[in-house]
Amino acid sequence: MMFFNVQFMFRIYLVLFHMYFIGNAFASANCHQTEYRIGEDCCPACPAGMYVKQHCTEFTGTSCRPCPEGTYQDDINGGRPCKSCTNCNAGLGLKVKKVCTSTSDALCENLDGYFCIYYNRVGCIAAQRHMVCSPGQYISQRGTADKDTECIQCANGTFSDGTSSSCQPHTICESVGLKQIQPGSDSTDSECGGHYVYTGLVAGITTGLILVMLAIISTIILTVLRQKISGKC
Q1: How far apart are the first and last CA of the chain?
Q2: Which residues contact 153 (CB under 8 A, 6 or more apart)?
Q3: Dihedral pair phi/psi, residue 18, rounded to 5°
Q4: Rounded to whole angstroms, how far apart are CA atoms 134 and 117?
Q5: Which residues, in sequence order, are bridge partners of residue 35?
Q6: Hey, what's the signal peptide range on this chain (predicted)?
């Protein structure tokens, strides 16, 4: 009877021991969300903007330090190092939209005259300069922060220096009374010059008008002289 009691007590001891061991292991493996696990212990986590300098012990709490300049920590953490701030490199076509702090990364945006070609979850990480249209092309769509400039070739009989939003028709020299010296191309207008086509006609009309004016003036002078002579008589 006594042997049965000893055996029974031993079994109870084993059950209690296993329950204690499993309970401690479960508690260690499931630390609170504001804690982190080190071995079988749960240590208080460091707040955002700080990192763990030294883990907690049985007698001391976690030792936290602020993130060094140029780094950040955006969440409570246990042992993770601070992350390096994103560099908004002008060489990648970027500028700072929001500066990096100890608790948040920098945000970048593309420089003026650039469009973004690579994004991450928070912003632009690389940009490219807008295309410059060549002479003989016109700008069909100006570049934006998200899209490149679109260029289209000018049609025959028109020209553009590459900075216009449309191509202009070549000047027809004869329509403005000039001779064509150089025909237009897709990047330049027609070159006009020389003498007027109707120079002889214009000169003849001008000469005729001058003669008419002289005749009128002469007539007036003669009339005045005759009146004076008649008065004396």
Answers
A1: 186
A2: 136, 137, 186
A3: -65, -40
A4: 22
A5: 44
A6: 1-27
